[in-house]
Amino acid sequence: MGRFHRHDDGTEHEHGSSGEHDHRSGQEHGDLSGYRTGPDRVTVLERIFDENDRCARSNRDLLDAHGVVAVNMMSSPGAGKTSLLQHTLASLSGRVHVGVIEGDIETSIDADRLAGYGAQVVLLNTSNGFGGECHLDAPMVGSALQRVDLTTIELLFVENVGNLVCPAEFDVGAHHRVMVYSITEGEEKPLKYPVMFRSVELVLVNKMDLLPHLDFDMDLFERNLAAVNPSVAVVKVSARTSDGLDTWLKWLEQHVHHPVSTPSAGA
After folding, report:
1. Which of 121, 136, 203, 217 is packed most tightly, with the most Cβ within 10 A?
2. Which among 37-41, 161-165, 192-196, 263-267 has the top mean pLDDT?
3. Domain residues for 158?
């Protein structure tokens, strides 16, 4: 049996061993009537998500006990999460003690890119899942937290696996959810992937330096985004030029217990 996920809008899908997604809707756990084992599958679904939610609460309790604020960073592959985190870590170096849980299916490429900025970086590969899990869940993050020295950090970034569906469906125990969205992805993505855009409180619209070279309608994108998440904050950035980085840092300052936009006392 593949791995099922539950969407906020009631949609369910299963990850088969080949990685394809089978979307189902219309019932609390999707239409499982085609399976003679349907009732058993519903029970498994409930146990999976109940266990994830319990582990997520445990992760948050652990972070709270150490005064650490965690931000779950999500995006599609290639949107620029890692590049943006590089700039962010460089700006925070010497000001805030930061940790990063780097989620990827395979390799340490992104984790290696984040080394050298003064942050604790813990790699979390998901390749042992069904062909490679397309997301991080709470138990995975819980295991990674055991390798983070929480007594020495104030802010933790969880860089989730690049995917516009699955990461939004699992609470990993973070306090905030942020999405990095590239303007190269098109204006329609909020309508096609509403669960992701609905689940976050901030969208970092990245690669703004490419806007003069693309046929991209920013007004249309913002209307589509507002249609699925009217209260979401939007910050326009460029990981290549660092434009908008100050606004992103100010957002962090408003949500983290320690100042990030200005050096700490005595620095």
Report:
1. 136
2. 192-196
3. 67-255
pTM of the complete model: 0.80
Distance CA 161, CA 218 (A): 26
Residue 252's nearest CA partner among 95, 59, 43 is 95
- 57 lies in a domain? no
> What gap in Å lies between CA 55 and CA 175, rounded to an integer?
14
Question: Which CATH number is 146's domain given?
Answer: 3.40.50.300
Q: What is the largest CA-CA distance in the chain?
A: 67
221's CB contacts (< 8 A; 6+ apart) are 183, 187, 190, 205
> 227-267 pLDDT, tens per residue?
999 999 999 999 999 999 999 999 999 987 654 543 333 33
Provide the number of structural domains found in the chain: 1
**CA-based end-to-end distance of the chain:** 55
Question: By the 8 A CB rule, do 66 and 151 touch?
Answer: yes
- Residue 15 lies inside a defined structural domain of this protein: no
DSSP of the chain, one letter per residue? --EEEE-TTS-EEEE-TT--EEEE-SSTT---TT-TTHHHHHHHHHHHHHHHHHHHHHHHHHHHHTT-EEEEEE--TTSSHHHHHHHHHHHHTTTS-EEEEEEESS-SHHHHHHTTSS-EEEEEE-TTSSSS-SS--HHHHHHHHTTS-GGG-SEEEEE--S-SSGGGG---S-SEEEEEEEGGG-TTHHHHSHHHHHH-SEEEEE-GGGGGGS---HHHHHHHHHHH-TT-EEEE--TTT-TTHHHHHHHHHHHSSS--SSPPTT-
pLDDT of the residue at 248: 98
Q: Do the domain assignments include residue 209? A: yes
